[in-house]
Write a structure and sequence with these properties.
Layout (H helix, E strand, L loop, with lengths): L4 E7 L3 H12 L4 E5 L6 H4 L3 E2 L2 E2 L4 E2 L3 H19 L4 E3 L2 E4 L3 H10 L3 H4 L2 E2 L14 E4 L3 E3 L1 H14 L3 E3 L7 E3 L4 E3 L2 E8 L19 E9 L8 E4 L1 E7 L2 E5 L13 H14 L5 E10 L8 E4 L6 E5 L5 H18 L13 H7 L1
Parallel strand pairs: 1-2, 1-14, 2-11, 7-16, 14-21
Antiparallel strand pairs: 3-10, 4-5, 6-10, 7-9, 8-9, 12-13, 13-14, 15-18, 15-19, 16-17, 17-18, 20-21
Helix pairs in contact: 1-8, 3-8
Length: about 350
Amino acid sequence: MENKNFEFLITGGGIAGLMMAFHLRKAGKRFLVIDNKNEKTSSKVAAGMFNPISGKRMSVNWKAEELLSQLHQDFQEMENLLGVNFFVNANILQAFGNVKESNDFMARLDFPAFKQYVDADSTVTSAIKNEFGLFEVLGSGWVKTAEWINAFQDFLSNEGRFLHEQFSWNEMIPTGKNWHWKNYEFENIICCEGYQYDQNPYFNWLPFKLCKGQVLLIDCKGLNEKYILKRGVYLVHQYDSIYKVGASYEWDFEDAAPTAIGKETLIEKVKQMIDLPFEVIDHLAGIRPTTRDRAAILGQHPAISNLYIFNGLGTKGMLQAPFLAAHLSKHILNAMPLHKEISLQRFHQFYTSGH
């Protein structure tokens, strides 16, 4: 008879949920991931880029060195486990959009933490317009996210650790010590539900600020396939002469569907970036689980000891997920304190004031 008693339930099988599953599996824990395999999630729509430098201010990401180290380690192990390559090392060739961006960049070079991740004198040739100059970001790249998600979900399914089903909290029965869902019993739950956090009655009080992102797939010949190109938007090589273009940042939106204005905006930005002809072959959209302070949310529910959250990865999901999943795993299994920047505790006042 199938074992339906687990130490952990992971709700959500996107980037966060699967990286959590990866680390619980390494720790020898019994867990089940439940996910409805929605193809339109931000995890699958996004390009899966990782970049040690982010934003218009060109700041080095929080714990960039540790994030990159864990990312490399986990995907080397993941590729060995699954026998498929998902990880692509590709430096970013970033062109300045104006003189101010160029001047700001030159000022940033005075900081060693920033300088280690850039080549200010890059001689790479490409079709990107660079009348204001450009630089190269070192240590960047991308993960074939949709392929990895599908492959790892299938792997876990074969192990009896993944259930392709629509999960509803209305069917979850807490008994004080454990959780019961249909014929299953769980000792703990880790919630990795992305933008659908508001369907979770235990964490819907958190201050998420969701962000819609739209991307294009274009066919464009003549680009340098070895580099991610960036000027306003990014171009990430997929296969043959196909590139992913994105992404938009929309804070006010009605739904997750692609829009005509989103498509036209991205097309115009590509034209501003390169002079080569291109053809749009697909248009996708997803909703990012972004938080009010732009940092992820990890930790234990304020009042329920066997209920946890791992969410809010926002625009840096692939870069952050391996390190944060390892961090949360150590917190749950070994009582290691969470970094205050990403700990759920920073939002406890929202719980006490609203519940």
